[in-house]
């Protein structure tokens, strides 16, 4: 049976409605292992994902035909989950060098998402950032887009009965705190739970990193990420620095400006900060993890 016949059979075996992967599909993928590498930079917005995915793609080109893809179905907002046909294509794609496919998504750890990560052995990296600084960075980004007359993707954070451009400043601030924080809370809580549930299993571990590492020690952070993503190869200090330097040439278009740590603390009032903390961590065990990750 050639690979096209195999592909046809696999496409008929889509994941189940609840997200679980059926046994036939698991068996078919296991019988046809890939020489390619897949990783997802599953970063929430405004934590340096665009910059880091670019640097990682450049670095992996030493050993792979490295390319960035969304790995999701075309959509008009940031709420992109992994898309089975795209992953299936990446699994079977071939070139002179193996492919390294880097995807960048903002995914909640729903079972359809995690089941696909497990099926295709996708390496997951999640970056974290202090929630106050993150929200302020999001707010400033939206203000900048509006000033430039550009489209504002508000699907994740500013859902209401009116467009962002029609909101008053008071309404924008309310949405930032009460809607944006809920999304970030759900994002982190879902992956913390999945990571905890995956301990002592054969599932790929998640690499947790921090935005502060990107600002203070970018070379060490990129080394940590590439070691997690591609443990088979070694990358020198010079190669890692060269990837960072090449990415830094385009930092404006990559929306990386090394945001000032602590500016969120000054932006929000004491009452607003307490409200954000309450939304982010309703359980003591969750709060402890968020504090360890320097989110709170």
Automatic annotation (TrEMBL):
Domain of life: Bacteria
Residue span, Sulfotransferase domain: 45-255
Protein name stated in the entry: Sulfotransferase domain-containing protein
């Amino acid at each position: 049976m050639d690979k096209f016949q195999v592909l046809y059979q696999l496409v008929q075996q889509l994941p189940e409605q609840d997200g679980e992967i059926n046994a036939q599909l698991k068996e078919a993928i296991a019988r046809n292992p890939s020489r390619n590498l897949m990783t997802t930079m599953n970063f929430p917005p405004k934590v340096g994902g665009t910059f880091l995915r670019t640097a990682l793609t450049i670095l992996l080109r030493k050993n792979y035909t490295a390319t960035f893809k969304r790995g999701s179905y075309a959509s008009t907002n940031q709420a992109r989950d992994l898309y089975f046909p795209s992953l299936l294509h990446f699994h079977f794609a071939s070139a002179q060098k193996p492919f390294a496919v880097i995807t960048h998504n903002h995914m909640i750890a729903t079972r359809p998402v995690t089941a696909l990560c497990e099926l295709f052995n996708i390496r997951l990296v999640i970056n974290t950032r202090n929630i106050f600084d993150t929200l302020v960075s999001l707010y400033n980004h939206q203000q900048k887009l509006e000033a430039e007359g550009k489209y504002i993707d508000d699907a994740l954070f500013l859902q209401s009965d009116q467009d962002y451009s029609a909101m008053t400043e008071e309404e924008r601030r309310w949405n930032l705190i009460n809607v944006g924080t809920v999304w970030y809370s759900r994002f982190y809580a879902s992956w913390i739970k999945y990571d905890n549930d995956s301990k002592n299993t054969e599932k790929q571990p998640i690499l947790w990193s921090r935005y502060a590492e990107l600002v203070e020690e970018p070379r060490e952070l990129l080394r940590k990420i590439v070691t997690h993503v591609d443990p088979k190869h070694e990358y020198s200090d010079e190669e890692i620095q060269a990837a960072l330097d090449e990415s830094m040439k385009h930092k404006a278009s990559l929306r990386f400006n090394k945001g000032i740590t602590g500016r969120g603390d000054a932006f929000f009032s004491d009452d607003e900060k307490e409200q954000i903390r309450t939304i982010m961590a309703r359980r003591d065990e969750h709060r402890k993890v968020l504090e360890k990750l320097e989110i709170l």
